[in-house]
Amino acid sequence: MSDTITEAPPSVPRPVAAPKKRNWIKIAATVLLVLFLVALPILTGSQVAYLKVAQYILIGTVGGIGLTLLVGQAGQLSLAHPFFLLVGAVSYAVLAGDPAESPGLVGLGFPPLLAVIGAVVICGLVGLAFAPVAGRLRGIYLGVASLSLVFLGLWLGQSLELFTGGTSSGRPPPTFELFGFAFSTTTPAPTIAGVPIQKQQRLWYLFLVFALGAYFLARGAINSRIGRSWRAVRDNEAAATAMGVNVARVKAGAFTISSAFAGLAGVMTALWLDLVKPDENEFTGNYSLTVAIAFLAIVIIGGLGSVPGAVVGAIVVYGLQQFFLLGANQFGWFADAQFGGLSAVILSAFVYGAAVVLVVLFEPGGAAAIGRRLTSRFTPRKER
Amino acid sequence: MGTFVQLLVNGLGKGAVYALLALGFVIIFKATEVVNFAHGSLVLVGGYVVFALKDTLGWVPAALLGIIGAALVALLVERVFLANARRADPNSLALLTIGLDVIITEEIVRRVGAAIPFIGDPYDAQPLQVAGITIFRTQAIALVVGAVLITAFLLAFRYSSWGVAMRAQAENKEAAALMGIRSSRVTATAWLVAGALAGVAVLFMATQDFSGAGLGRGTHAIALIAFPAAILGGLDSTAGAVVGGIVVGLTEALSAQYISFEFSKSAVFLVMLLVLVIRPSGLFGTKELSRV
User: Fold this and answer.
1) Distance in angstroms (rounded) separating the CA atoms of residues A34 and B134
2) How many whole angstroms separate alpha carbon A298 and alpha carbon B280?
3) A21 vs B72, higher pLDDT
4) Is residue A152 predicted with pLDDT exceeding 50?
5) Which of A74, A147, A317, B11 has CB atoms 3.0–4.6 Å from B253's, for a disulfide?
6) Which residues of chain B have a CB within 8 Å of the CB of A356?
7) How high is the pLDDT of residue A384?
8) Which residues of B touch A238 (CB under 8 A)?
């Protein structure tokens, strides 16, 4: 009897993970884009109006990313975005507002940074409060149910004048400050390459930080466990339950996160307009049904669920509108359009309405699918 | 008591108009499973035709042409856009109608311009005195017209061959096609009828009595109130649309009087939320079952 020698099996060479090929073109493009965005205030120089357009696109981007997560990734149709924008804007004004500066209005006087965080958290909580409704409904039923928040926001905005300032005058949003550095115009202004960095330039950098943060947070969420659970619930709730996904919690979570993004967009809207003012009616204004449709258009044009797509959608929907307005103000475009003419707002609505129709008919994946096709053309196929 | 009766007539009249709109949603949804977000713009098309023609042709021919116009635009939307995108699922087609809605609405609002006209000439702002109670003439006529049209529609839906074909297709599209029902014709007529109902509804909506909002974005937003009406009753139930419309009309009229005018639209949506929390598919809607 000899010892049974358990011979170690000839060691199979472990498959060495192929060194991850970096897509240098993509990285270079990203770096160039970020450099361009950082340098934008210098490029626009004293033409602050262009910078305002770019800031507005970033507002659409942050809100659009929030909605694309909810509609595209988690499969919950929502038209309530303007409501959360309003809640975010008002919360910021209330939390940071100085009671001495605005008599008759509620202002808690928190530091602005804390107020921004607070506004985002409040929006998330309000979104969470809607979860018992959102969790029970599906598809179009949820869409119309969420529409009720817009009407509720309209009414609350009009009646709670102590917080919102009322529809006639509104209230000014407190200046954003970061450790004593005010995001407003100061006399000895720092300059970069000869361009004074004043209020609008400072706001641009602030918005850029917000938008980049929102972008990477959303990408991170999509690529992680949270995103997988969203997609599982979107594709089949029964199957997701069987896989151990808590459907109710995931749905509530998606609504909360989307609302928080919208709240940040609301704070940005307040700073951009330099005014917090509830709407006078439900069909025109910054927190109205028109905005709900515009955000949905951003998401559709970009491709449901795609974060870079939301950026493209924001450029098409929010950017074009402000660009045409800019043209109208500066170069006298649409000058012959008194009433019944082709105004800037109407032209941009035509463009994005047509874009939505064309996307659904010919490219249901939206800008994201177009982008994917283009990049696959320029990158070599992987060998299998 | 007098106020209450007045409110009741007012609310029922509004409810009848909402029911007409909600029926449009429901027929289209039953035939195609598409939720028509462009309904508000069909309303505007009908109203615009009336506005453009009533001074030259007289009100009655203009109103008839308005109804036909709204119906034809609805048919056009179906034939040009939806019929050519059969592969797309109903949800993305609903998104497509959002795009169409934006375009049509902006175009009409542009054409109407600053005028924002009222188009209910023969009855608008002429209150009726019945037994010492003042009633809006618009709402009273809307109630009668609505009741007649809704009855006619429900009878046709129940007994005519079109109604049978329509219900068969809603029940099972493939089986209906095998029985010789022409699916595209059923779908097209559904849109045609829905458009015509929208064309009738606008005759009462763009008046001083109904809302004080002339033909324009305001009318378009009122058409959105028909959404809760359709949802509340259940999107695939014609009877539900009628009940939903009346509930919405009464809620709006009563809350505007007893709470506040600003709150009345929110009240409509709150009532809808309440119903949806208890019955997620509306009052009469088919419950969604998922087989595991």
Assistant:
1) 67
2) 28
3) B72
4) yes
5) B11
6) 95-96, 98-99, 102
7) 46
8) 290, 292
